[in-house]
Design brief:
Layout lengths: L17 H6 L5 H11 L7 E5 L2 E8 L4 E7 L5 E5 L2 E3 L13 H13 L1 E3 L8 H7 L2 E3 L5 E3 L2 E6 L2 E6 L1
Antiparallel strand pairs: 1-2, 2-3, 3-4, 4-5, 6-10, 7-8, 9-10
Length: about 160
């Protein structure tokens, strides 16, 4: 009973530094999802879902009851929604098309590093936005200029403070 053992073909394993792996552009959304998942670099508060050709990254902020959703469409065009409203992040200087895991992680970092305030829906505060020209004083009378102000509903203000 001499059985000859079959030889396995040699396996070539090539290892790249993580930064090279993350920075390389993905050719498809699925390959981008695989890079994000396999790198295990997506922050734990973000949930990654691939659904019908769209990558969705969700984050729920319990204290404010606000959901952030970053979506990356086919063609690698991204958008950010806070609650039901689409929001831009011009201050982050991110490209409109992100096709590498590193760019996605930079986007998540930018969102995490901004302070989003749902504001106050009371109409009496609506005029303050224009009259203060984005400059609001704290208790010490220091003026803090808001980097971006978005009015996404005539009655509600969303302020991004960087």
């Amino acid at each position: 009973m001499n059985e000859k053992k079959k030889k396995k073909p040699p396996t070539l394993i090539v290892r790249f530094p993580l930064c090279v792996y993350l920075s390389a552009p993905a050719k498809t959304l699925m390959s981008l999802v695989l890079r994000l998942k396999s790198s295990k670099q997506v922050p734990s508060q973000w949930t990654l879902v691939e659904n019908d050709g769209v990558i969705l990254l969700h984050k729920l902020v319990q204290s404010a009851g606000i959901t952030y959703v970053v979506s990356i469409q086919d063609g690698f065009l991204w958008s950010l929604r806070i609650g039901e409203e689409k929001v831009g992040l011009d201050s982050c200087e991110l490209p409109h098309i992100i096709c590498s895991a590193a760019e996605v992680l930079n986007l998540l970092c930018c969102v995490d590093n901004h302070t989003f305030c749902a504001g106050n829906a009371d109409l009496k505060f609506g005029g303050l936005i224009q009259s203060h020209k984005g400059c609001f004083k704290n208790a010490d009378a220091f003026c803090r200029v808001m980097s971006e102000i978005f009015i996404y509903n005539p009655n509600i203000l969303l302020i991004i403070v960087s």
